[in-house]
Amino acid sequence: MPLNQLSSDAIRTRIVEYLAPGHFCSGEVLGEQLGISRAAVSNHIKCLHDLGLDIYSVQGKGYKLAQPLILLNKSTIAAQLSNPGNANLIVLNVIDSTNQYIKEHQTELPNGFVCLAEAQTAGRGRHGRKWVSPYGASMYLSMHWTFALGYQALNGLSLVIGVAVVEALKKLGIVEAQVKWPNDIYVQGKKLAGILIEVEGQMGATCQCVIGIGLNVALPTSVTQIDQPYTDMQSILEQDIDRNRFAATLINELHTTMEVFEKSGLQPFIAPWQAADVYANKAIKLIIGQKTIEGIGRGIDNSGALLIETAEGVRAYQGGEISVRPG
């Protein structure tokens, strides 16, 4: 395609590719390469900065990324998958959300299809909360899966995906990752990742499931919108993270996990979930609307419900409106 016909998204992708090695590149050179004015380059740089890309400028030198960036690459990821048949994936630049992409295309997608993006403009977490999604700084991944048996086959899925994420992290050296009921991953008391499961369908009929994962890889220091303690892979391992390698590792783990879950449900994952429970035998409080229940966390039962021990004994709690906090 001629340069003057490139979309704004394609131009910004090209700019990031030029800057990715980590060296300075002037607005004049970028403009010549892309066939646009220096003013247009400046506007695109501002948009990238607004998307969370840690980029700065020095008069007389040009623009530079705060640190080199290896972009996600479909071919690189596919080459590292344990089963070539699992290479049904798409890598996008900027999107509203990867979950939304899967939802809009799910009727035409095969099981296990994965959508990855460099940035999200409308990423969401549990209860509709905004998921901060700076450019090239995290893993924004969504997988499509169809369940022929309907909603009843999904019991405990968010817990199972949590176990899969923990196992993938272990393979990259993060052995201290833990799960927080029902859908978060913690390391050293700080949030590393979140899981969002969205389902469409009817009881007793085939349902379409979107498994969304947001995982912090190397967040820029400029991030200020996160309202809780958080961490990222780079801080934990104290080294640069190969996002393509991790994407392949996570996709491999998700496929293996989903195949077991389809056949056997939650049961095979209860023990590993219990072993990784961040609140195991610790004081916690459940917030259910205006009500607060305090007690000791006792893991989950066979249905995936959270167990809490109070003076009245051990009770199970289940439901999307429950929030769990340290006691």
In a few lines, what is going on in this structure?
It contains 9 helices and 14 strands. It is an alpha+beta fold and 327 residues long.
CATH hierarchy, class of the largest domain: Alpha Beta
Distance between the termini: 58 Å
SS element count, helices: 9
Fourth-tier CATH superfamily name of the largest domain: Bira Bifunctional Protein, Domain 2
Low-pLDDT sequence parts: none
Helix content: 25-40%
Would you identify the CATH architecture of the largest domain?
2-Layer Sandwich
Which fold does the CATH topology of the largest domain refer to?
BirA Bifunctional Protein, domain 2
Q: Give the domain tally.
A: 3
| Overall 3D form | globular
The computed structural class is alpha+beta
In round numbers, the mean pLDDT is 90
Radius of gyration from CA coordinates: 21 Å
For the biggest β-sheet, the strand order reads: 3-4-5-9-8-7-6
Describe this structure in words.
By secondary structure, the chain is an alpha+beta fold. It has three domains: 3-65, Arc Repressor Mutant, subunit A; 74-275, BirA Bifunctional Protein, domain 2, CATH 3.30.930.10; 283-326, SH3 type barrels, CATH 2.30.30. Helix content is 30%, strand content 28%. Strand 12 (306-310) and strand 13 form a beta hairpin.
Write the layout of secondary structure elements.
Layout: H1 8-19, H2 27-34, H3 38-50, E1 55-58, E2 62-65, H4 74-78, E3 89-95, H5 98-105, E4 114-120, E5 138-147, H6 157-171, E6 178-180, E7 184-187, E8 190-201, E9 207-216, H7 233-237, H8 243-264, H9 267-275, E10 283-288, E11 291-300, E12 306-310, E13 313-317, E14 322-326
Parallel strand pairs: 3-4
Antiparallel strand pairs: 1-2, 4-5, 5-9, 6-7, 7-8, 8-9, 10-11, 10-14, 11-12, 12-13
Helix pairs in contact: 1-3, 2-3, 6-8, 6-9
